[in-house]
Amino acid sequence: MDKKQLEKYAQLLVRSGGNVQKGQLVIVSCAVDDACFGRMVQEAAYDAGACEVRMDWLDDQCSRTTYLRGADEIFDSFPQWRVDKLKEQDDRGAVYLHVRSSDPDVLAGVDADRLRRSTKSSREATKEHTRLTMGSFRRWSIIATPSPAWAKKVFPDLSEENAMEKMWQYLLKGARADGENPIADWETHKKSFDERVNFLNKKSFDALRITTKLGTDITIGLAKNHVWEGGGDTDKDGIPFFPNMPTEEIFTMPDRMRADGRVVASMPLSYQGNLIDGFEMTFKDGKVESFRADANESALANIIEIDEGGGRLGEVAIVSNSSPIGKMNTLFYNTLFDENASSHLALGKAYPKNLKGGDELSTEEFIAAGGNDSLVHVDFMFGTPDMNIFGIDENGNETHFYQSGEFVFN
Amino acid sequence: MDKKQLEKYAQLLVRSGGNVQKGQLVIVSCAVDDACFGRMVQEAAYDAGACEVRMDWLDDQCSRTTYLRGADEIFDSFPQWRVDKLKEQDDRGAVYLHVRSSDPDVLAGVDADRLRRSTKSSREATKEHTRLTMGSFRRWSIIATPSPAWAKKVFPDLSEENAMEKMWQYLLKGARADGENPIADWETHKKSFDERVNFLNKKSFDALRITTKLGTDITIGLAKNHVWEGGGDTDKDGIPFFPNMPTEEIFTMPDRMRADGRVVASMPLSYQGNLIDGFEMTFKDGKVESFRADANESALANIIEIDEGGGRLGEVAIVSNSSPIGKMNTLFYNTLFDENASSHLALGKAYPKNLKGGDELSTEEFIAAGGNDSLVHVDFMFGTPDMNIFGIDENGNETHFYQSGEFVFN
């Protein structure tokens, strides 16, 4: 991939993604194999006036080795200094830039119980940091870069070199970062969200009924005072940022106690290296009552059973089928891309920002208001080109605002 | 370089270097560009029975960028969580494996005052960890791997690819890791040190007089109860390890108050990216009285003036000219290699292990016994093929035990 275009991609992450401000501390997490791109991000962050840019280097392969070969007890603890590190950074108002380049299969064959315990201990220890980032008290942004393993997974028929080149093209196109001026393109993109979000927030439906030919037929209650979001976020100081690049979704908060019916996934879910495939769930009173999967059902069970909120909904998101990623018709084995190809739901924790005044509520108050709480937040796709969505108001009247995969409220 | 031989090199670091024990926590620090070799070290450490192998990834280029572009105030502080991280690891009895692959010029042009302040704040914060590692309470080991920039610096006339290949050959040969069974070769190597160390410890000279044709003529008092070390180390539990691979030196502790005469360096000193060249110092009563350098004199001043101990000697080390590295007759711009090519001195902190019972002394007691204390410990070479060393006993009698670059006491 052309170096100039990559520098634009790095600048997009820094400027539109994290919106780095003068004098700000910046944390860049990046795979060691992607050091060249990570260095571009660091330079771009200094260009934006960062006071300090720290690199958190990651290596999925070393993580895998430790999952496979480490002593069993190490997965139940999370060192306090790691918590303190996040606190020091958060106290200094850090912005977090994540460059993700994962091999979808890197955790395949790893003991699911180790993964579950490791996730649980790290999530519990870093709850405060999660509250700050999910509540938009701190800005953050994620973009993707290809790895050879990932590229070969998505394009198994190409040579590694060609697969990498094609991945770069797809990732940049999918992230609307393939043009002359990606930052300007994202300004335009941002505006296109407003119409949809405004329509849905004005309607403030009591529930959504969603159907697909795959067999989904579910009525999802929306929390009273829910807020539709999309097209980026704004932090507590009013500074806009894009947590995810790409982002094509608009999303809100289900009522954790109201979801009834059947959901059939339209794409496999790659979760901690396991591809959960051919799966569906049946909800009653907001909770998963039964579920099944053709492949890796136990990984699905790990999500649903991690805690009380793991089997309830934390997000409902609608994506137009005509998004750049939707049009690629490609399974990326990667939530960041796959979730922007298709409408989806999330099991687990809801975003406080999807509720009016949600940020000021205690966890108990948030739950009482219908918000779901959990150690996990896992998106899975259920959108199809034939999907229909009906908004239902408090009197039971239906508005058919999304038809055959597209918004039709105009 | 042949992958099998690299795996042997990784095993050598783990087994002979750090001597990783069953159930031990292992910390591997490694450059991101060297991820392949870092992963081999991780695997080898698990092979040795490590309970957990954590990777600390480094990137010199990103460090350089921060030195050049970071806000000025960030160089005066060192986050507490970094101190706590070392403490957690030390409390768990960690062994530290360092894979060093530095570009000698990476810090060239960086503001010397920023470097000095950064070194000072990190050294002050990590004093306890330094005490544990320098006092052999915790095991650690350093080996080197080539980087393209380093290889091109040492072999400027070769292509990058050929320079890298030649560097691998030189580094493996220099580290006695180019044979069929490097671990066995190191056992043999270890034994060859015993004769020299035993001779010098039995003699327990009061002082050394050292001369070279370059102009060195200095008498260095040795601390009463000094101990000559060499050929590896033994931790507090009696477990042997090699802190440096290669190691060819035997070394002991000067009396911080007794060094008189002139020292002329025989090789440039690469310090924090600056090549201090053509330098000499004159000592009086143990302290540098005057100094000069043809190049980067200010970097030399930064060492000498960092604190009271920066201008006094912490180590005197003798190397035979016929060591594998000595025979290469190559400037590596790297202390680990260059110090094993030639006899050298260190400015700054002395090793407590070079004094009988030194580990049990407080800093004040250590200083009173003649040991030097400082935030720095910087080796510089002054050995030449014509070097002569005379041991002087308490009555002033001289023993000429090292002649024209070789030990001659047999």
Describe this structure in words.
The structure is a homodimer of 410-residue chains. Chain A is an alpha+beta fold. The first copy, chain A, is built from 13 helices and 20 strands. In chain A, strands 5, 6, 11, 12, 13, 14, 18, 19 and 20 form a nine-stranded antiparallel beta sheet that branches. A five-stranded antiparallel beta sheet of chain A has the order 7-10-15-16-17, with helices on one face. In chain A, helix 1 (3-17) crosses helix 2 and helix 1 (3-17) packs parallel to helix 9 (182-203). In chain A, 50% of the residues are buried. At the A-B interface, helix 2, strand 2, helix 3 and helix 4 of A face helix 2, strand 2, helix 3 and helix 4 of B.
SSE inventory with pairings:
Two copies of one chain form a homodimer.
Chain A: H1 3-17, E1 25-31, H2 35-47, E2 52-58, H3 60-69, H4 80-91, E3 95-100, H5 112-125, H6 127-134, E4 140-144, H7 148-154, H8 160-174, H9 182-203, E5 207-211, E6 217-222, E7 229-230, E8 233-234, E9 240-241, E10 250-252, E11 254-264, E12 269-271, E13 274-284, E14 287-295, H10 297-304, E15 313-318, H11 324-328, H12 335-338, E16 344-348, H13 363-368, E17 377-381, E18 388-392, E19 398-403, E20 406-407
Parallel strand pairs in A: 1-2, 1-3, 3-4
Antiparallel strand pairs in A: 5-6, 5-18, 6-11, 7-10, 8-9, 10-15, 11-13, 12-13, 13-14, 15-16, 16-17, 18-19, 19-20
